[in-house]
């Protein structure tokens, strides 16, 4: 028996987005990320969504810790992959030992642009020196970033980046831009992909935290 559903234009667009390959697949992002890892590496997936990439990494034999800010998404990922998924935001994720690699596919754009550097800095503290971090963003050339179309998603995309703003973003952070590239498809549009490598010098994290602390102190002083 077949069923025919009549969808509104908005529902049709959402359905196409759900059925279309994710930007990470269109951009062939897995290969350069996996090339930096040893077999059996312990990964962190930052914003795992419904768990498609989590499932893929597990089938390849990697140990994966995953989190998502959405309870419904974390529950879906847990059901798909048969493992616990933490419900938390970037800054709430902590671990005793650093991870060998971090996969953040399409999750960082859910933050405002001024929240990206603190989030990446926090992820740097969870990553081993010289470990890879993959991230991706809807592409935007204008400055400041042009607003993204309204979305009914639980965590809509808030930030676009282009190559220049990506370079500016990571300049003060303990990351080296190893590789960046773009992909495009009819459903998701153009996306910017980036593979970052964690600086092996731990002093860079302390330097950044010191700058953030001084900036915060100046703001507090100015508000008095």
Features:
Rossmann fold; seven-stranded mixed β-sheet; 8 helices; 224 residues
Rg of Cα set: 18 Å
Helix content: 25-40%
How confident is the prediction overall: mean pLDDT? 84
- What's the arrangement of strands in the largest beta sheet? 3-2-1-4-5-7-6
Describe the structure concisely.
This protein has 224 residues and is of the alpha/beta class. The protein is built from eight helices and seven strands; from the N terminus they run αααβαβαββαβαββα.
Please tell me about this protein's structure.
It contains 8 helices and 7 strands. 34% of the residues lie in helices and 20% in strands. The chain has helices spanning 9-19, 23-26, 30-34, 52-59, 71-81, 116-124, 163-170, 203-223, and strands spanning 42-46, 63-68, 86-87, 101-104, 132-138, 175-185, 189-198. A 7-stranded mixed β-sheet has the order 3-2-1-4-5-7-6, with helices on both faces. The longest helix has 21 residues, at 203-223. It has 224 residues and is α/β, with parallel strands linked by helices.
What is the secondary structure topology, with strand pairs?
Elements lengths: L8 H11 L3 H4 L3 H5 L7 E5 L5 H8 L3 E6 L2 H11 L4 E2 L13 E4 L11 H9 L7 E7 L24 H8 L4 E11 L3 E10 L4 H21 L1
Parallel strand pairs: 1-2, 1-4, 2-3, 4-5
Antiparallel strand pairs: 5-7, 6-7
């Amino acid at each position: 028996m077949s069923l025919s559903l009549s969808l509104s234009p908005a529902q049709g667009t959402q359905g196409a987005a759900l059925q279309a390959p994710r930007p990470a697949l269109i951009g062939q992002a897995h290969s350069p990320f996996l090339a930096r890892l040893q077999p059996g590496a312990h990964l962190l997936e930052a914003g795992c969504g419904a768990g498609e990439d989590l499932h893929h990494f597990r089938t390849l034999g990697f140990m994966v810790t995953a989190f998502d800010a959405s309870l419904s998404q974390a529950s879906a990922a847990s059901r798909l992959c048969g493992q616990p998924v933490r419900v938390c935001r970037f800054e709430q994720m902590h671990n005793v030992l650093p991870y060998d690699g971090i996969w953040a596919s399409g999750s960082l754009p859910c933050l405002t642009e001024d929240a990206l550097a603190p989030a990446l800095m926090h992820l740097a503290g969870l990553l081993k020196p010289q470990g890879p971090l993959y991230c991706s963003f809807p592409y935007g050339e204008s400055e400041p970033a042009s607003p993204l179309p309204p979305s009914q998603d639980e965590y809509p995309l808030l930030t676009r980046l282009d190559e220049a703003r990506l370079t500016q973003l990571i300049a003060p952070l303990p990351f080296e831009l190893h590789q960046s590239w773009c992909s495009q498809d009819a459903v998701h549009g153009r996306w910017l992909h980036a593979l970052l490598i964690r600086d092996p010098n731990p002093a860079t994290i302390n330097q950044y935290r010191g700058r953030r602390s001084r900036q915060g102190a100046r703001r507090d002083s100015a508000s008095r």
